[in-house]
Write a structure and sequence with these properties.
Catalyzes the condensation of iminoaspartate with dihydroxyacetone phosphate to form quinolinate. The protein is of the alpha/beta class and 320 residues long. The protein is built from 16 helices and 13 strands. The chain has 3 domains: 103 residues, 3-Layer(aba) Sandwich (Rossmann fold), CATH 3.40.50; 102 residues, Rossmann fold, CATH 3.40.50; 80 residues, Rossmann fold (3-Layer(aba) Sandwich), CATH 3.40.50.10800. A 5-stranded mixed sheet has the order 1-13-12-10-11, with helices on both faces. Strands 3-2-4-5 form a 4-stranded parallel sheet, with helices on both faces. A 4-stranded parallel sheet has the order 7-6-8-9, sandwiched between helices.
Length: 320
Amino acid sequence: MNNLSSSKEYGTMPAQDPAIADLVARIQKLKQERGAVILAHNYQVGDVQDVADLVGDSLELARWAATGSAPVILFCGVHFMAETAKILNPSRRVIVPDLDAGCPMADMITPEEVDRLRAEHPGAVVVTYVNSPAAVKAKSDICCTSANAVKIVNSIPESVPVIFIPDQFLGDFVQRQTGRNLILFRGFCPTHMRIMAKDIHQAKEEHPDALVLAHPECQPDVAMIADVVTSTSKMATEVRNFSGQTVIVGTETGMIHRLQKENPGKSFVAACTTCDCANMKVNSLEKILWALEDMAPEIEIPEEIRLPASQALQRMLDIA
């Protein structure tokens, strides 16, 4: 249950444990030998973020994956993110610490559902949030992330209907920002669903001068009372530019590690102390080391899926 009566306030970074330091040293050595780069999403545990070469949101990581040159990508996130890296880099090896790092939202949408929506709305453009399986991206016209969804939808002529999948709350946010009526699928992120407006109000009472950040995957009543609703990468920018001391963070709790590390003079309050994604958290330093040792598990995507999915992702990157 999420509540802010026991909200956690984040301050200074802890010292690194010697056992962790040893693991990190072994990972760094093996990474050099393998020619690997480690990418980590903002929701990973702190130790995983700290060992990564790049920490970012889906758009930042997708951009890097499309332009980087390392022969091996070790992707620390959830399965659809590693798939995206492989879609954009068919000749490079993409490995993950744990194949069981899935995404409940991504599992809510199937290629068959996309076919059904297209049949019900002929002529509509299918805009697909990157939080989706490769096979769904392959059925889509263009992809988006939380950072560029408004821009992507605005790039489509107003006379053309838009099917937005799979996140209904990101879709609702885009509707309010663009003034468009979108055809929304009823998917959602279970982690962001647990962030409640009443808890934001309570946090504001305890920290009246705080900046309130919320992810657009949050429910609309949360987005309505936040100071800024944006992607995690843009949250980092907002915090850097904020002249105040305290920030209330309405997203998965792993984001606070990055914000705390980049802004040691500021304090952070989790809008929901239990809003951590169990799927993101299955990755660990030990699993990173094992993946580099075995060069597995490896992501493979059939060309009949990869090619059309790549087109949908590239259209997004061209616009974003």
